[in-house]
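Q: I have 86 residues here and want to know how they pack in 3D. Can you give me a structure?
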Amino acid sequence: MNLNLPVNLKDKIYQIKTNSKNDFLKIVSYFPLSDDEKQLIVNLIDDSKSFDGFTSIFSDYISEEEWAKSKMQIIKRFQDELFDID
């Protein structure tokens, strides 16, 4: 699904869960999104009746600067560890 999110916000999202009707169910981010980021996403969702909200993989809040400096490492490490589960 394409929400036409800004690149900096799209990078923060690990998964967008939808149902068979392509209704948005849940947004999973690496770290908790800010209230402004959440509001932007909610505004982009056409029909939010089935939308259950936001969740994140990690519970720590990080600044934009921390995210910008470490996002590639975080994403790569998470993906590498996820593949090692098999």
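Q: Anything worth noting?
A: The chain has three helices and three strands. The longest strand covers residues 13-18.
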